[in-house]
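Exercise 3.2. Students should predict the tertiary structure of the chain below and write it as structure tokens, then compare their answer with the key that follows.

Predict this chain's 3D structure.
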Amino acid sequence: MRGKEVQFVYMSQLSVFLQRTITALLWLGGAVVFFKCLLSPLLPFLLALALSAMVEPTVQKLRRGMGVRRSFAAALVTTALLLVAVPVTSPGVLLATLLCTCLAPVAGQFGWGWGLAAGFIHMTIVQNTSILHGGMNLYNNGFAAGLVCILLIPIIKSISPEPEED
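Answer key:
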């Protein structure tokens, strides 16, 4: 009889161990699903949110100091951060700078400020579309310049005042 009691206690302990192990595995599986399926797609958004919270005091000081809209001040801070993030002497940046002369008509038609904005947008697009062409080349710069014009010219025309007719 004594052997059966010991076996019963042993089976009870094994049952508790198995229940706890299965529970721990289910929690671990749920954590993996959470991080892989939910947190991973949200991570860029959460990082951008954290970065915007970190640069918000700078944006507010710039807005008050220059007397401009908050969106313009945020665009200036973002542009400054992009300039710091990409080394100016890298071959891709130099090639994109040399070949962005295709945007000269934008500056000629709408002024140097819009030309500068087109250049910044071109630099961002040309670095992210190079994978479509297997690297940075002339075709990539032309493609990026076309996208810049498609995006920027309607915005410029909608913002700028219409000329008065005589």
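Discussion points: The chain has a mean pLDDT of 77. The helical segments are 2-66, 70-85, 91-98, 104-110, 112-128, 138-159.
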